[in-house]
Amino acid sequence: MGLMDFLKPADINAGVEEFRATPGARLIDVRTPGEYAGGHIPGAANVPLQQISAIVSEVPDKSTPLFVYCLSGGRSAQAAAALKRAGYGDVRNIGGIGSWNGEVER
Known about the structure:
Layout: H1 3-7, H2 12-21, E1 26-29, H3 33-37, E2 44-46, H4 55-58, E3 66-70, H5 74-85, E4 91-96
Parallel strand pairs: 1-2, 1-3, 3-4
């Protein structure tokens, strides 16, 4: 992976595709409950960034693959780092729903 790959923003569309192809994976929306209620990717659980430590009740198995998103990718990057520090081994920041091309659930 070169420097340009590192600087390239996450592609949420590819990330959701990878989530759907990963057995046992969980999709986590770290936006506020109000943002989540306004529209989220089908199948996503809402665990706001401010309450990311509550993930243990939502996903107790720390080997579960986690795909994390927010509005633009900033909060999901923070959440992914916090989840890794908490011991979750397979965490991917897939970016922001602002770039999502699929359906949203309300």
